[in-house]
Amino acid sequence: LVKRIPPRPPGYGRSRETFPRWTGSTFDAITPAVVAASHTVGALLTNDRAARLVEQKALDPSLPGLEEVIDAVQRASFGATARTPYEQEVKRAVERVVVDQLIEMAGTAPMPQVRAIATLKLRRRATELAQVAAANDADGQQQSATESAVAHAGLLAADIQRFLERPAPAQQVVMPTPS
């Protein structure tokens, strides 16, 4: 399918019906996956939905909580199997979307427990990513991951660490507004 999509002709502007591009004027085969993942993950991990998940788990422990939903999202992204270089690149793009959404939630959620859970999941993910990023031995020989995978893991780990170390004032508990 990608081979059949030509570059957009000059004079045809961009609209909400076109995908964003990192590749200039040619069709970007990665960003449709980013858009789809952003819509899906963004809908699953909104601040208000996350707060409802925390609350529903507290009221009925048999129901899934925020921890379980985040774990499922991470299994579906970081645990996915990619057989081709294209699938590997799409997988990396989707993983970036998941990490960015967790960073957003950990930094902006009004409910402190949502921020706490998202931060914990980010810390754990950063540790796992740092292990992948350290896949090179002292001679620079790769032991278990491709150079692209090591680079990706290193950048995600660094971005999470930067977020966790950011000098930001503590957020105050935001009381919900009466309906």
Q: Which term fits the overall shape?
A: globular
Given as residue ranges, the uncertain stretches (5+ residues, pLDDT < 50) are: none
- Please provide the count of β strands: 0
DSSP helix count? 6
Which value, in Å, is the CA radius of gyration?
Answer: 19 Å
Query: If you average the pLDDT, what whole number results?
Result: 84
Model description:
There is one protein chain. This protein has 179 residues and is mainly alpha-helical. The protein contains six helices and no strands. It has helices at residues 31-44, 47-59, 66-78, 85-108, 112-133, 147-165. Helix 1 (31-44) runs parallel beside helix 4. The protein is globular, with a radius of gyration of 19 Å. It starts with 30 loop residues before the first helix and ends in a 14-residue tail after the last helix.
Question: What's this entry about, in short?
Answer:
The chain is built from 6 helices and no strands. It has 179 residues and is mainly alpha-helical. The mean pLDDT is 84.
Helix-strand blueprint:
Blueprint: H1 31-44, H2 47-59, H3 66-78, H4 85-108, H5 112-133, H6 147-165
Helix pairs in contact: 1-4, 3-4, 3-5, 4-5, 4-6, 5-6
Features:
about 180 residues; 6 helices; mainly alpha
